[in-house]
Structures are given as structure tokens and as C-alpha cells.
Specification:
alpha/beta, six-stranded mixed beta sheet, 22% strand
Amino acid sequence: MSILVTRPHPDNEATAENLRTRGHVVLLAPVLKFEPVAFHDESEVGYSAIIVTSANAIRAVAPLLPDLDLLKLPLFAVGEHTAAAARDAGFAEVIVAGGDAAALRDKVIQSVREKVLKKKGTLLYLAGADLSRDLGGELGAEGFSVVTQTTYRMAPVKILPRDVCDGFAAHGIDAVLHYSRRSARAFLEAARDEGVEISALAIPQCCLSETVAAVLRDAGASQVLVAASPDENALFGTLERALRTRLA
């Protein structure tokens, strides 16, 4: 089966390799491009912990971390993928949430009840330029002080690779994997610009979350499937289910 991965580089490479070991042919169309944003922390308040919702936020500041005196702080990561990036960057104390921002919020709140974190402390939120929810505001409503620092942006890629366009035109792509709301929107815009939107939306769209799925449904996709949990293994399970149905 031929699977299209829309995930940005470099994460798409690991996804592609995982799919190939499962016997799939993989096409890559990274519809967002990672761009770091200059990090300027002018806060004079000492932080008690860091919260991160994307591995890209850590990649963006990784070269600066030794000079920022942040590695000694506990870091709350949205999921295992982000946690792995944090450990690779040098963070020793990494607390892993259940895969989405709501789970991360709840993990931070729980840490106060367990006396791992003091509620009056200030949290540093390393974030992207486009946020799917106001995590800082939600934690602020719970009594936390949150300083949000934008460390990166994901810029839309306006075109699809030629082999992907040809694959849609020849009905040679069996499913598409979507990892974020922004990448789903960028994929739709690129497919529309390339004139392959109808073909692209006629096949299964496998989405990491319901938020992502809503973008595809609103665009007219008729076969939208959502992973049971917001992690890649669950997404792969959804893909296999979609392919079985397609072959039936």
C-alpha cells in the first residue's frame, strides 16, 4: 500500500521508516517547514518548570540551552516524542503527559497536588507561533503564572512534490496521515493549488486527533478516521483499519 506522510521534516523520516518496516510504500510531502524564532528571555523571575507541546520548540532553542540555565529545571512534555527530544537536549527531569495539551495541563495541575511542583512558581512555556489552544491561559486560570516564549513557527509549503501529484492523479495513493490541524490545512491548500484536491480527499484521511479530523471533514473528505489516542502507534492502528476496509 502507498501511504502519504504530510508530517514536517525531520520527524517524517522516522515515520516513513516505521511504515516501510510494516510493508508500505511511502511518499513524503512535508506541508509545513520548521523555522526557529530568535529566543529573547527578558524575564527576571526564576522559573520553577518548563512546559513544552512540541519537539520543535526544543529543537529551536537546543543550541542556547547551556547558556540559558534551563536544563536543571523539570520539563513537562506533551508526549513521549517531545520527551525524547528534551532528554536528547540534556534535560534530566522530564515528566511525560498523555499526548495532547489538555493532558499536559492536567499533568501540571496533578504535580502540584503531588507536591512535585509549587503552584506559586512561574512556568516557562516554550511554544510555537500558532497554538491550537491557550494552554498558558488555562493554567493561569488555575492559579499558575505562565511566561510564554515563541521559539519557532511552521511555514506552509505551497506545492506538493511531483510524485505525490502524479500519485493522486493515477489513484495510486491509498491513505494520507495527518499530524496537526495546521498541517492538514496546509495540505488542503497545496492540493487545491495543484488541482488534485478531489482525488486527495477521496481516500482515507488518518488523523492524530479529532481537532485534526475536523479540518478534513469540513473540506469534504468522506473517509476520516481518528486515532484512539494522540500517539503515532495509535495512528498506525487507525491506518491499518482504514486499509483493511479499503480492501474489503
